[in-house]
Write a structure and sequence with these properties.
Elements: H1 2-18, E1 22-25, E2 31-35, H2 41-46, H3 54-74, E3 81-86, E4 91-95, E5 101-108, H4 127-143, E6 150-159, E7 164-172, E8 178-185, H5 192-199, H6 209-221, E9 225-232, E10 241-250, E11 254-263, E12 267-279, E13 284-293, E14 296-306, E15 313-325, E16 330-345, E17 348-361, E18 366-378, E19 381-383, E20 386-398, E21 401-402, E22 408-422, E23 426-441, E24 468-469, E25 475-477, E26 480-490, E27 496-508, E28 518-529, E29 532-541, E30 552-557
Parallel strand pairs: 2-4, 5-7, 8-10
Antiparallel strand pairs: 1-2, 3-4, 6-7, 9-10, 11-12, 12-13, 13-14, 14-15, 15-16, 16-17, 17-18, 18-20, 18-21, 19-20, 20-22, 22-23, 23-26, 24-25, 26-27, 27-28, 28-29, 29-30
Length: 561
């Protein structure tokens, strides 16, 4: 065993000795041999061919040797020797010697934690790491609000016997800087006060780099601005106070929305919207939308104050009108109330509504006070404009309270979609959802029951048609519902992406077995264009009952998955 170990060590030594040293040459015919690490191309090209008289030759040889020496020293080979071996072919032999290490890092003031950007003790010394460490040290103090920190001492002491370099850095960090005046530039439609409220910047705050970045990000995240930068004017610091310059790039103040489509559920449908983000210099936003189809007709108005009470909030009032005639409901709903919306990150939010509803229908008319909480968690990622992977969850919980008679209920819904890619060939999109309504006091009225059917859950079935059937052939809904489905998208990044899909769902009161499971399947096509995605689907119920006897078509624009 000992002989085998000795032979292995000897073999490794032979391999190390017999390994050929690195050979490099440039276009001028100058070549290097003997170095273990390649010289950068810029260094190699700086070496010139030796020519001319003897004095010129000697000058060029010494200059080339100096260039090579500095290159090796920058990699930690402090005592390397360079010999001009052959005049006929301009050949240099290198004896690198030992590679020197960092003996110690002596930094004042001392750091309270270890940073990967600062060279470590016993690591190989390189000039690049040394300079990067100096910049990183200045940035560490800059991040903490010491904007005028500077080096008063930066030296390296060699120890030839130990083959180590001892580094001594001393920083004059000065005093911590606080925010003085704040100058806003680039705003035309929105007031300075609105931008300051959105950013969270205030005089007297510590001007740390992270705080300034966070403030710029809060502005950039708002729909009214394309981008924002917050710059500390370090050239104007006085008595520890630093002025800030905030530069914003605004989006257009007005936005028009609209689409036109067709589906077997809604027939021809049209939607139009108008948004104004600059009421009273941006202190308020206004949103007006209208929706017209064979089944639904409605409009809504919303006025909100952005960035209030905090930078991530929006508070306002809303009112809407909706007339609906589906396979289950024939109602007219008036709705008005107030809301507070909190944004957590882009597309992620929670919204609290306090609404009053008036519902007129063929059943008993209702007047409700309805507190509710709606939320969205969206963690999808995109690549070259195409959906890549991630997930999305939407939900709502409401507490409708009857203002006439006795009645109090809880209504809840949650739905999730997942996006799972299989290389570049397939995108699997499973989706699930569930809803329930239960009574705290009084029977659950038809207007608050759960319904399934349509493009949002079980495609191939008429809108709100799944479940029990009551008088006039209308669906009665149920107290509970659940659905699941899956889309398989082929070649999702191509211009034309075929889709196969299937859905199932059920509505019930006490036990799921009360009703047959609705199952459907279909095919579709997604057309990816420069202005957005277009999707055309045909779905067919595999279990036919009630009003569901044939296939149904769906046409959608924009968000098609």
């Amino acid at each position: 065993m000992l002989c085998l170990l000795s032979f292995t060590l000897w073999l490794g030594t032979v391999e190390a000795i017999s390994a050929k040293p690195l050979l490099q040459s440039n276009e001028d015919g100058v070549s290097l041999l003997g170095h273990s690490m390649p010289c950068p191309e810029v260094v190699l090209q700086a070496l010139k061919k030796v020519s001319g008289r003897e004095a010129s030759q000697l000058f060029r040889v010494r200059k080339n040797q100096k260039i090579i020496q500095n290159c090796l020293a920058s990699q930690g080979f402090m005592d390397a020797k360079i010999r001009y071996a052959d005049k006929t072919i301009n050949h240099y032999l290198i004896e690198e010697g030992a590679r020197w290490r960092v003996g110690s890092m002596n930094i004042l003031p001392k750091l309270d934690q270890v940073y990967s950007t600062i060279p470590k003790r016993d690591s190989f010394f390189t000039t690049a790491a040394y300079e990067a460490g100096k910049n990183a040290l200045l940035n560490i103090w800059f991040e903490r609000g010491y904007l005028t920190s500077r080096f008063v001492k930066s030296e390296v002491l060699p120890n030839a016997q130990e083959k180590k370099l001892y580094v001594y850095w001393t920083i004059d960090i000065g005093e911590r800087n606080h925010i003085a005046d704040i100058q806003i530039e680039g705003n035309k439609n929105y007031s300075t006060q609105s931008i300051l409220r959105l950013s969270g910047l205030k005089q007297g705050q510590v001007a740390t780099a992270k705080h300034l970045r966070d403030c710029a990000e809060r502005i950039s995240r708002d729909i009214r601005f394309r981008s924002a930068t917050v710059l500390a004017r370090t050239d104007q610091i006085q008595r520890g106070l630093v002025p800030l310059k905030v530069t914003v790039v605004e989006t257009p103040r007005f936005e028009l929305l609209g689409n036109l489509g067709y589906s077997s559920d809604l027939g021809m449908s049209a939607r139009a919207g108008f948004k104004d983000f600059g009421l009273m210099k941006g202190r308020f936003n206004a949103d007006v939308q209208a929706d017209v189809s064979d089944v639904k007709k409605g409009m809504g108005v919303m006025v909100s104050r952005p960035a209030w009470p905090t930078s991530r909030d929006a508070t306002g009032i809303q009112s809407s009108y909706l007339k609906e005639d589906t396979a289950a409901l024939r109602t007219t709903i008036w709705n008005a109330g107030v809301f507070v919306r909190r944004e957590f990150r882009k597309y992620n939010y929670a919204k609290i509504n306090l609404n009053e509803k008036w519902i007129q229908s063929t059943d008993v008319p209702m007047k409700l006070f309805e507190p509710s909480l709606a939320f969205r968690l969206d963690w999808r990622s995109y690549e070259s404009g195409h959906l890549r992977d991630g997930w999305r969850v939407d939900g709502r919980v409401a507490l409708p309270i009857a203002l006439q008679g006795r009645g109090k209920w809880v209504s809840a819904y949650a739905g999730a979609r997942f996006y799972v890619p299989f290389k570049k060939y397939f995108l699997l999109v499973p989706r699930v959802g569930s809803g329930m309504t239960f009574a705290i006091k009084g029977a659950v009225p038809k207007q608050l029951r759960q319904y399934l059917g349509g493009t949002a859950n079980v495609r191939g079935y008429k809108l709100d048609s799944i479940g029990f059937t009551g008088p006039y052939g209308l669906a009665k809904g149920g107290r509970k519902s659940a659905y699941a489905g899956v889309d398989l998208v082929l070649l999702p990044k191509e211009t034309f992406a075929p889709v196969l899909f299937s859905d199932m769902g059920r509505v019930w009161d006490v036990s799921p077995r009360e009703q047959a499971l609705a199952v459907s399947a279909g095919i579709g096509l997604i057309i990816n264009t420069e202005i957005g995605s277009i999707r055309i689907d045909m779905a067919m119920p595999l279990r036919r009952f009630g009003q569901n006897l044939g296939s149904r078509w769906y046409f959608s624009l924009g968000e098609v998955l």
